[in-house]
Amino acid sequence: MDKIFRVNMTDLTTKIEAVPAAWAGLGGRGLTSTIVAAEVPPTCHALSADNKLVFAPGLLTGTAAANSGRLSAGAKSPLTGGIKESNAGGTAAQMLAKLGIKAIIIEGAPKTGAWYNLAVGLNGVTINEEKELLGLGNFAVIDAVEARLGKKTGVLTIGPAGELKMTAANISVKDPDSKIRSHGRGGLGAVMGSKQIKFISIDGEGAKPVTIADPEKFKTAARAFSKALLDHPVSGEGLPTYGTNVLVNILNEAGGLPTRNFTTGQFEAHDKISGETMHDTIVERGGKPKHGCHAGCIIQCSQVYHDKDGKYVTSGFEYETIWGLGADCCIDNLDDIARADNLMDDIGIDSIETAVMFGVAMEAGILKWGDSKEMLRLLTDEIGKGTALGRILGGGAGSVGRTYGVTRVPVVKNQGIPAYDPRSVKGIGITYATSTMGADHTSGYTIATNILNVGGYVDPLKKEGQVELSRNLQIATAAVDSTGMCIFVAFPALDIPECLPALIDMINARFGIALTGDDVTNLGKYILKLERDFNQKAGLTNVHDRLPDFFKTEPVAPHNAVWDFTDEEIDEFWNF
Amino acid sequence: MKITLKLFATFRNGRFKIAEQELAEGTEVRQVVLSLGLTEEEIGIVMLNGRHGELDSTLSHGDILSLFPLVGGG
Ligand code: SF4
Question: Which residues constitute the signal peptide according to the record (chain B) (predicted)?
């Protein structure tokens, strides 16, 4: 039977609990958000003992289903002040699922200054005082934990940014190569830091395959699902070849590539940082153009990027990071952006929030446009060391904007707006405005339909159809985020009719239940409404479902588009 | 008339990134696609002057035509 592991950091006790009936059908985001909504006072300080940090693998995690190995982390976010779920690949989710752990709930906070590590295993969690690894970067932590506990140990860790409770701090997850994937957004690393936990180790000893109620049915569905993933041109060919960074040139052509802190929609040096150039560079230097963030990923959008001498620089090098440090900061040196990506992984800071932040910092005059060397220095010497300036930068785009009196600050609910200009790609603007997570492209990825012709086509420059598009995608995404699936399964799911039924059949075969498509839609709606309710109680209401004013008043080239939705039109989103 | 043709992702293999093309008045996007040895099914996104275009869009002097296979990310 699956169980809940509960860790109390105030009195340093741990418990194993049965899964309440109401939580049995939930996993991933559905479960973390349900637990946070049930147990965290919405008005609490996100870094106080009242907040709880919850980890949950998805409903299909640990099974043979392709791309199902994602882990959800949830809490009240210190960045947005609302509820947060952030999911990541790595090895932890599948280990937890095979140990029969439905969720880990970490509550309370130590009364002294001591720091701890948690050791998770088949028989529960032990809390150990930790001294040796404090202050270290995430790569060193992973190496040290492997040396201490064995190569196969799973690791969730925070770097200096999390220890210092910076609101852009993330939680790193060890991947199959002992490198890093991240629960990036919303400052969850600061929540882990507030509980004074440097790392969580996972011992897979005694793990068993997850039980499948109807193995035959599962096998058939899993096969159909994998086939859909491999047949679709985006998940079967585009993503493995070029990674997500193929979007640089596409968004540049569409005039939706935010450049120079969102003052224009095209970047002159786009080709130097593009997916095409990156692919050729990786191949030339003996890196890996395709790579999975967890065992069982058959899309493999990730990659391993080497320097000129053929040495590892970074992996999981995403479009949003490259866009942010590239176009938005006017940096045309892909090697320096790769170095920054690695530093951010090591320091443990969200690469999207930090990239958006640097655009604001350049506008504030903290460093010059395009100055990649100074950016690397600020990461290493200021953020990494936690100087006063470093803490301001580590607070994200909103923090720098407030401190330096900048008015062009691209955030919603204080979370940095990623990689797609909402004036020229209007559907994503509705997602940024209404998402319970703050500005988050993944929560309703309208780029698929606005730009990529996946799931039909809705003209990105017109208002018609955008609210409905974003609503449908946000509902579907909330459900998919509960399965442990990577969100890129949405590309085939939008176009190939067999894909979604196969996904539902796998869930049914796993648990011996009979969900229909409507049940899955209702799950998505339940999650969004639950998260919205938490946010409203926390003080985030419809007036926070808005984009910053400058999007309304500053037309963006080349289309001279402005954000022209009325408040009432945006609020229509919640009519479901 | 002259247009600027830009190719992306796998379409660049054995071809080019960007080229000027001299075309007869009234040429449609489809004809350009076929002249490259590409099939209609291979085309993911057509962009004409930064807006989404169609295979039967008619080209005009000075147009910028961009062709992408079906790719994506996020
Ligand atoms: S497609 Fe990319 S993000 Fe998704 S599971 Fe695979 S490597 Fe991870």
Answer: none
CA–CA gap between residue A166 and residue A185 (Å, rounded): 12
What domains are defined for chain B?
Answer: 2-68 (3.10.20.30)
Q: Which residues of B touch A253 (CB under 8 A)?
A: 6, 8, 47, 50, 66, 68
> Any idea what the Cα angle at residue A327 is, between residues A562 and A375, rounded to 5°?
125
Residues of A in contact with B74 (CB under 8 A): 244, 247, 319, 441-442, 445, 447-448, 487-488
- Residue spans of chain B under pLDDT 50: none
Regarding the domain delimited by A425-495+515-576, which CATH topology (the fold level of the hierarchy) does it fall under?
Answer: 1.10.599
Residue of B nearest to A243 (CA): B73
**Omega before A497 within 30 of 0, i.e. cis:** no
Domain residue ranges of chain A, discontinuous segments joined by +: 3-202, 244-421, 425-495+515-576
Distance CA A205, CA A435 (A): 39
CB contact under 8 A, A559 and B50: yes
Domain range A3-202, CATH architecture: 4-Layer Sandwich (3.60)
Angstrom CA distances, A208 to A118, A200, A459, A476, A492, stand at 21, 21, 49, 30, 31
Q: What is the pLDDT of residue A430?
A: 98
Whether A452 sits inside 8 A of B69 (CB atoms) is no
pTM of the predicted model, to two decimals?
0.97
Q: Which CATH class is domain A244-421?
A: mainly alpha
pLDDT tens digits for A255-307? 999 999 999 999 999 999 999 999 999 999 999 999 999 999 999 999 999 99
A89 lines ligand 1 (CB under 6 A): yes
